[in-house]
Amino acid sequence: MFFVFGKEYFDLIIIFINYIFFLIPLYFIYKISTELKDQETGNIAMILFALVPAIYGMSRQYGHKDYQLIAIITFNIYCLIKTDYFKDLKWSILYGISIGLGLLIKNAFIAYFFMPLVFIVLQSFNNNFEFKKTINISLSILIGILISSFHYFRLEIIKKMFYEPVTEPASLLSFESLRTMTFGLYDELLSLPIFIVFIIGIIWYIKKYKHKYKHIILLWFFIPWLTIILMPHHKQAEYGVGFIPAMILISALYISNIKKLIVKKIIVAGIVLICMVQYIDFSYQINTVFYRISTRIKGHEIRYYAKYGTNIMFYDSKKVKQIAEIVKYFKDNYPSSDTSTIFIDTNLEDVDSIHLIMELNDLHFNIVNDYTNCINVDNVNIIVYATNISLSDKINTYVHRLHERFYKNKNIDIKNFKRNETINLNNRRKYIDENFYTIKTLYFNDKSDMPYEINILVRKN
To answer: What is residue 366's DSSP assignment?
Structure first.
């Protein structure tokens, strides 16, 4: 990948690899759908899955294990179905492989595969006991253990598995904790149109859908969902991305079972239309009416979608070029042994990309940035400064960060915060003007083809 794209364009490598992790679950969602009903259901499921904001949002991020978990979960469930209650040896072996690989990706995989496996094992023996089923079940479990054992049979990993769920404790009954796996399912994962179809669909699924593998899909959703709800740990909606395919399958089954063809077409067309507008907005930062819809319940914001949450990352080819040019300048002008402190004064979402690509190019600077408020630059050696970001833009970014639920800054007076940060930013700008000078200017155009500059400043002697 580095040979094809070059180390400066790491963003393209991320997207290329994540396309694979998108296509794998897309394929197995279709295959599971055909097992549960027919090809029409598979086509609807693929469309819905591709339009989920959390899916294409996470596909733009590097090393997101929750996103990569989706591929192995869908493969695992499909293999479990194809074992035919562990009558089939080939699929039993593949199922064991899927267990091992899933556990290697993330230990949260246990919550997704364990109860469906237990259910099928019990059903296998209840229906008709056969010795070969015992052999196939044992073989699947043994293969899974052998593949994952070199990682899990270590004391520190065992301790980590028991310790992690109780770290960062949070009240189970607090609004923020409860909303993560309720409102958060639509405003951070599915988006409202797909979520509404899912809610209607799961009621229909429980009451009316009949199929021998019905309970596998329910367990795929409910067990991880309840695990996250009940764990005494700070919760994030992205913990639940592994059951997004189950929600999509239930939604697709409901739509495909609507008897009136015209109603079915209107529902699918309406979802596609709204979700395509969302895709454009969440890809190119266009502030559509959907993003501006919000209300408050007892002081807590309920949004149409958490557009600036961690699951959405906007992609702009011009931004990729900008980051590549910045890294190239430092690579050409500074030795790899330089550990100077660089203050990245650009869009906050660019900072991690700049840092990562610098490391890939053997540059080991100490990178600092504004994350929740402005920093002191007394110990900074170099500044990368974007001229197209105004003081008000910075303040608004800080406020967006404060509003993100992760930081829980509920008691901050926003008006006072804005006033204080404006004073701090003006003082910092004055200090920079007095103590730094521009050594290099890089020229770019923004999304509207308006010219702007990125200045690289160093300290005066």
So the answer is: E
